[in-house]
Design brief:
single chain; about 230 residues; mainly alpha; Helix Hairpins; two-stranded antiparallel sheet; 2 strands
Length: about 230
């Protein structure tokens, strides 16, 4: 029924986004990183950031839910995460933000594992495989952002921020995470403690290894599939 609706839709772009498992996830992640901070600065509220994060959670659940076991596991993580995320908007309990970040880290780790399994088991390179690979890379950046936020919450002063800035929010840690993941290293946010330095170094290594190994894997899959077709 869903596939018939997608085929008959008069808006091909929307149909294409909904049809794949990972394209909507990529769109949600990019919107969260690029659009949400702009709206937050303009409207001065965190509502839109939470909405984009909720879209990531929902699309992530859809992307990895290929079996009843995976649906159960991801639901057990995502549902409490959504509750703590939105409950904090109405009840300002101190431990809720830290709980949300902890559950988000678990959610991202499980999603990364499931999506990597899908990529490695794929017989050939398709658009869904490419979108899945992009999703994992963006998830890695978001994962380390959550780790940095938890670390700063548990050990205040783990990071040095720009002059005059006493603390940082999720947008700042997202920025720092991707600057580290891509090894740009602007230096406006600096890890100070041994743990912060270790996590930053580990993220830079993981980011580079992921790109090298993944590209080699996708190229190998494409060559193998092309050889089979020619034979």
């Amino acid at each position: 029924m869903t596939s018939n609706f997608l085929k008959k839709t008069k808006i091909p772009v929307i149909g294409h986004i909904l049809e794949g498992r990972f394209l909507f996830l990529v769109v949600s992640l990019l919107a969260y990183f690029a659009i949400a901070p702009l709206l937050e600065d303009f409207i001065r509220i965190r509502l839109f950031v939470d909405i984009f994060l909720t879209a990531i959670l929902v699309s992530g659940m859809h992307a990895v839910s290929t079996s009843n076991r995976e649906r159960l596991i991801i639901a057990l993580i995502a549902l409490p995460l959504l509750v703590t995320l939105w409950l904090y908007r109405f009840v300002k309990i101190d431990f809720l933000p830290l709980t949300t970040q902890g559950l988000l880290i678990l959610f991202l780790i499980y999603c990364i594992a499931c999506i990597l399994s899908f990529i490695l088991k794929a017989p050939r390179v398709t658009r869904d495989v490419i979108y899945a690979a992009i999703s994992v890379y963006l998830f890695i950046g978001l994962l380390w952002s959550g780790v940095y936020m938890v670390l700063e919450s548990l050990q205040p002063g783990s990071f040095s921020f720009t002059k005059g800035q006493a603390s940082a929010g999720s947008g700042d840690f997202n920025y720092y995470s991707f600057v580290t993941l891509t090894t740009l290293g602007y230096g406006d946010i600096t890890p100070l403690t041994a743990k912060a330095k270790a996590f930053a170094m580990l993220e830079a290594v993981v980011g580079q290894l992921y790109l090298v190994v993944l590209v080699a894997r996708l190229v190998g899959m494409h060559i193998a599939h092309s050889s089979k077709k020619n034979n």
